[in-house]
Amino acid sequence: MSALGQQLSRIFPRTEDVPETHRLPAFTDQTEYLINGEFRHWQGPMGEAFSPVRLRTANALMPVPLGRYPLLTEAEALTALDAAVAAYDHGRGHWPTMSVAARIGHIKEFLRRFKDCRTEVVKLLMWEVGKSLADSEKEFDRTAVYIEDTIEALKDLDRTSSRLDIREGIIGQIRRGPLGVVLCMGPFNYPLNETFTTLIPALIMGNTVVFKPPRLGILLYRPLLAAFRDAFPAGVVNTVFGEGRKVVGPLMATGKIDVLAFIGSSQAADALKKQHPAPHRLRCVLGMGAKNPAIVLADADLELAVRECILGSLSFNGQRCTAIKIIFVHKDLVDRFLKKMTIAIKELPCGMPWDPGVFITPLPEPGKPAQLGELLKDALNRGAQIINPEGGTCNDSFFYPALVYPVAAGMRLYDEEQFGPVVPVVPFDDVETPINYVVESDFGQQLSIFSSSPDATAALIDPLVNQVCRVNLNSQCQRGPDTFPFTGRKGSAEGTLSVSDALRVFSIRTLVATKDLEKNKELIRQIIHERKSNFLSTDFIL
Hints:
Elements: H1 3-9, E1 28-29, E2 32-35, E3 38-41, E4 46-56, E5 61-70, H2 74-88, H3 94-97, H4 100-115, H5 118-129, H6 133-160, E6 165-167, E7 170-178, E8 181-185, H7 193-204, E9 208-212, H8 222-231, E10 237-239, H9 244-253, E11 259-263, H10 266-275, E12 283-287, E13 292-296, H11 302-314, E14 324-330, H12 331-346, H13 368-381, E15 385-386, E16 394-395, E17 398-399, E18 402-405, H14 412-415, E19 422-428, H15 432-440, E20 443-444, E21 446-450, H16 454-464, E22 470-473, E23 489-490, E24 493-494, H17 499-505, E25 507-515, H18 518-529
Parallel strand pairs: 1-5, 8-9, 8-11, 9-10, 11-12, 13-14, 13-21, 14-19, 18-19, 21-22
Antiparallel strand pairs: 2-3, 4-5, 6-7, 7-25, 12-24, 15-18, 16-17, 20-23
Helix pairs in contact: 2-9, 4-6, 4-8, 5-6, 6-7, 7-17, 11-12
C-alpha cells in the first residue's frame, strides 16, 4: 500500500487523539422548540444526529452520535404557523407595523446574543457537517457581518424613502412593506450562513417567520433558540423540527405561507410549490442546483488556472452550489493541466475538521461516498480514467478527491451535479463545445473563464452573460462579496440575494398618495409632525 493509501486507511482518529478543546460535551437531547415566544418541550419520537467523523478503535470505526432532536408532527408545525400568522395579523401586527428603527433595534439585540454563541456553534459546525475549523469560524463571522451589513443597507434604503414626492399634482411617499409569513429553509452545506441570508432580511423587513433548520446541521441551532426567543416579539420567529414531508408539506397546503425561502434541490422546490393551493400568490426565493463550468483556453496562465480550479472544485469537498463542477480544457493545454492538478490534489491536507490547515474532510451526507462511487463507475465504464493516484478511495465517510478524464457527453458526470470531491475534465479544441454545453444546460448560475487574451475572453463574455448570472475571469466561482447579486438563470435560482437585493425580495413597494390640495397637505403635516404613523414619516435614521 502506498504512503497515501496508508494515510487514508487511518484517516480517522482514536478518541484520545481528538484535541481537548475540540471535544464535544456529553450526548444530550434537545427537546425544546420555539413557538409564539416560548419554549415548548417535545416528549414524542426523536431524530438522532451523527457526525461524519468516525472514531477508530482496535477493530472498527465507530459512529459518533451528537444528540437528538424533536420529530414534530403536522399538529406542531401548524401551531407554529398559526403563531406566525397571528403575529403578522394581516399586516396589522406589532412587528409589521413597527418603525424601521425599532425593528433594527431588535435585529441588533439578536446579533449581540448571536455573537455570544460563537464557540458552541463553531464546534457544532465542525462535528455536524465536517467543516474545517477555519471554515466554520469563517461561516459564523461572515454571518455576523452579513447581519451588520443588512442593517446598514436597510438604513440606506429607508433614508431614500424618507422624503415625499410630488408629481403631476399627486403627493406620495413610497416605502417598502412586508409580504406576510415566510417559510425559511436553508441547506446543510452552509447551514448557518445561507439560512440567515434569507431569514434576516425577511425579518428585518417586517415579515414573520416559520423556520426549519437543515436536516444536517440541525443541532447547531440549539444555542441560538434562546437568542431568537429573547430578541424578537412573540410569534415573529417560530421553529419547526422533523421530517420535511411530515411538517413542511402541511404548512404549504394551508395556503397561509406567503413567501417560500428555500435553498436546496430544484426537485424539492418544485414539489413544495405544487403543494400551495394558490401558487400565483406565493412569492418564491429559491437557490437550487448548479453545474458551474470552468473554461480553460489555450492561452491561460496555467499555474493560476490550476490554483483557482482546485479552490473552486474542492473547497469544502466540492459541496458548494458555487463550486466548479466540470472543467473544459483546451487540448493544447490539457496534458499539462492534468499533471499539475494531480500534483495539487496530492498536496491537499486531508484529515479531521480540527486539524490545522485541513482541506479535505469527511462527508456529512449518509450514502454520499457510495453515490460518488456510482458516478465514477459510470464514467470508467464509458472510457474515462481516474488520473490521480488513490483518487476515489473511500474510507467510510471519507472520500479522496478523484480527477476524472476524459469526460464526455453520455456520462452521468457530464450533466449531473456531483456535489462532492470529483473533478471531471473535458478536452476541447473548438470553443463552441463549452459554449454549447452552457447553452444546453438546465443550470445557469456561474462559470469561470481562464485566458490571457482580451479578444478571446471578450468573445466568451458576451454570449455567456446571457446564460449565467456571474462570469468569473481567471478566478473560481464563488458567492461573495455579499454586496454583489447572487442568483441564477434557468433551474439554478429564483429571486436575487445580496445584502440590498434581499431586502427588496422580501418586501414590496407600497405608497401613500393624495392630491396636491391644501387640506391634504395639512393632514400630512399633522401626521408627520406629530409622528402618528410609522409608514408616513420623514424621520431619518442615522
